[in-house]
What we know:
The structure is a homodimer.
Chain A: H1 6-22, H2 29-35, H3 40-46, H4 50-76, H5 80-97, H6 107-113, H7 118-141, H8 147-168, H9 172-182
The first copy, chain A, binds a DNA duplex through helix 3.
Amino acid sequence: MAGRGETRERVLRTAAELFQRQGYHGTGLTQVLAESRAPKGSLYFHFPDGKEQLAAESVALSGRELAQALRAAAGEASDGRAGIVALGEYFARALEESDFSKGCPVATVALETSAASEPIRTACEGAYGDWLDGITEALRGWGVPDSRDVGELVLSSLQGAVMLARVRRDAGVIRTVTARLAELVPRA
Amino acid sequence: MAGRGETRERVLRTAAELFQRQGYHGTGLTQVLAESRAPKGSLYFHFPDGKEQLAAESVALSGRELAQALRAAAGEASDGRAGIVALGEYFARALEESDFSKGCPVATVALETSAASEPIRTACEGAYGDWLDGITEALRGWGVPDSRDVGELVLSSLQGAVMLARVRRDAGVIRTVTARLAELVPRA
DNA sequence: AAGTAGGTGGACCGGTCGGTCTAATCTGCT
DNA sequence: AGCAGATTAGACCGACCGGTCCACCTACTT
C-alpha cells in the first residue's frame, strides 16, 4: 500500500492540472483517475462530495502555490517596475512552456462554475483574495500609494492579459501590459 | 413554417446566451434545442459541423454585437476619462442585471476551448481583435499616445475585472479598475 | 492469530452526451 | 394540381458522464 494520503495527493494534483488545462466540465473523472492511476473507490473515499469537492480543493491548492510563487517573484525584484514585469514574465513563461495550455489555474473553472457551485466559487474567490493580498503588500513595499486599488488594477490586467495570450497563442500582450503597468509605479 | 432562416437565428441566439452563462462543455445541445424550441434535425441542417460550429458562430455573433455596443458607449462620451468609465459601466450593469451570470460572452468559451478547437479559438481571437480595434480607435480620438498599447491594457484590465467581478459577485472591481485606468488618459 | 479500520479495485447504474438518419411536412415554382 | 427542394420532427445510437456499491486486501492492534 502506498504511504498515508499519498493517493489523495496524487489525485488532487492530477485533477488540478487537468482542470487548469481543460476546465471543469471538460475534465472527466475517468481521465483524472486514469492519469493518477487510482480507482473510483479511492476517489469517493478521499473526496466524498465528488467532483465538486475535488475542484474546490484543486483551486485552493493551485491558489496557495501560485500565491507563493508570486510573492517569491515580487520579493526578488529590486523595485516596483521590475517587480511588475517579473509577475508578467512568470505567467508568460508558463504559457509558452506549456504550448499555451497552462494559463491561470483558477480562471477557467471560476467562469464555468461560479454561478452554479457555491463551494467552488468560494474557493476561487479565496485564491484571488490571496493573490490580491500578495500584490498589494508588494506594491506598498515599493512605495505605491493607494496600493489596494492599484493592486486590483494589476491583478485584473494580469488576468485579462493571460487570457488574451492564451486565445492568441502569443504571450506578447502580457509583456505589453506589464510594461504599461510598470509606469504607474515610482522608480527605485 | 417560420420565416426563412428564422429557426437558425433563434437557435444561434439561444446558444450564444447559454454559452455565455455556462460555457461550452457546460451547455448541452439538448438544452439549446429545448430553449429554442427546435428539433435536432434543424440544428444539424443549419449547422452541419455541430456544436463546434454553433459555438464558433455564437462567439462571432456576440463579438460583433458587443463591439457595436462598445463603440456606441465610447462615442457618446465627451472625453477619454468618461469613455473608459462608460465602458466599465456597461459591463458592470450587465453583470448586476443578470445576477452575475452574464459576463464576457467570449471569455468562458475561449478559455475552455482555445487549446482544443482551432475554429472556436479563431472566432474568439477575431472577437477580441474587433474590440481592441474599437477601443484603440476611441483612444486615438481622445488624443491618447501609443493608443494601441494602451488599448491592450484597457482591454486586458476590463476582461480581468469582469471575471473577478463574476467570481466575487460584486461589480466593484470594474469601477475601481476603470477609475484608475481613466487617469492614464488626458482630460478633455 | 484473530480482529478491525483504512484504503483499494472495479463492476455496475441510470442518465445524458453529441451525432446520425429517415420520414413527414412545408413552401414556392411551374 | 403537382412536383422539388428546403426544412422540420424526433426516434435512435454508442459512448461516456458522475456516482454508488461492495468485495477485498493490507497494516496495525490486541
